[in-house]
Amino acid sequence: xxxxxxxxxxxxxxxxxxxxxxxxxxxxxxxxxxxxxxxxxxxxxxxxxxxxxxxxxxxxxxxxxxxxxxxxxxxxxxxxxxxxxxxxxxxxxxxxxxxxxxxxxxxxxxxxxxxxxxxxxxxxxxxxxxxxxxxxxxxxxxxxxxxxxxxxxxxxxxxxxxxxxxxxxxxxxxxxxxxxxxxxxxxxxxxxxxxxxxxxxxxxxxxxxxxxxxxxxxxxxxxxxxxxxxxxxxxxxxxxxxxxxxxxxxxxxxxxxxxxxxxxxxxxxxxxxxxxxxxxxxxxxxxxxxxxxxxxxxxxxxxxxxxxxxxxxxxxxxxxxxxxxxxxxxxx
Amino acid sequence: xxxxxxxxxxxxxxxxxxxxxxxxxxxxxxxxxxxxxxxxxxxxxxxxxxxxxxxxxxxxxxxxxxxxxxxxxxxxxxxxxx
Lengths: 332, 82
Description:
heterodimer, A: alpha/beta, Peroxisomal Thiolase, Chain A, domain 1, 2 domains, B: mainly alpha, Non-ribosomal Peptide Synthetase Peptidyl Carrier Protein, Chain A, 0% strand
């Protein structure tokens, strides 16, 4: 009798490279303070944001994704045709179907790659890395392109004081492939659908079609989210670190989702990392770019020489769902 | 032994001071956290979480918005302390 053949696993995976693209317009606090009856000082104090990068009308989420992906593919020194899977983490691709990932695969030359979008909001990139790690190590794919991309400015309400003024546009990309040593630790992830309504949209597209609400935009219950994002997510970060087998002092960087500087500061304080660990704060002049924020922040730490290739970074994404994921990665 | 209102007020004032730098003696029962003490929502939540630890009390998110004045918080903590 014949037996079924399964994939041949490979032991380790790692991130080969990162790519980054930000919206081309720097939007200052003064630019957006009017409609929320606020000021530069108020916004800085509550969020730490000085400017946020937004894309103009002629720059699409796909444009940002392609720019970031091409950089990552070039730096990985692989042919785009060798990419077996493309995962696009996004909440702002403006089509219900087809996915953005299939178009992205086509545009970067990842011909015939498996391609799909994932909706895990600000945890989306870390979900994507978890999937890429599993695909590579299981032998299902050799190289996987993971892109977190958002054009959130299409889904903001200038008068909203809960989240809109935090948001920016950008894309961050990573190529994941096989490795001769461990480069991605076990992902600690999960969700809390009991708090489904804490971060999300003002309504559904059906509500919009039926004239019940204006164009749906992003909204959050900031105070509840703050508590969850710090005190609950610190537990997840600690668990991820423990799973990695590392101690806090072994980390070069902490790269949290860039939600709000107040969250990042309190998160780092509660986590109790030594001063040698660099805490990423790309949000200060990029804004909160949801699924793109972690790869953008990590890319910047590397580009500015704040951390070196080969060091370890604890990355954690958390947001709408509520959904979260954390893992330790070797910096590419 | 259960803490008195005065004990809770003193402990809460310490937490407010730690988070915001506001002098502990400015934290009086009739003061509003936002209007008088100018404490923003994020600092308020940090104080709430620290108060949970300090006083062994659960303060659910939906209760936090009812804590308008220092007296509201002191009364809630005094009544619900573990």
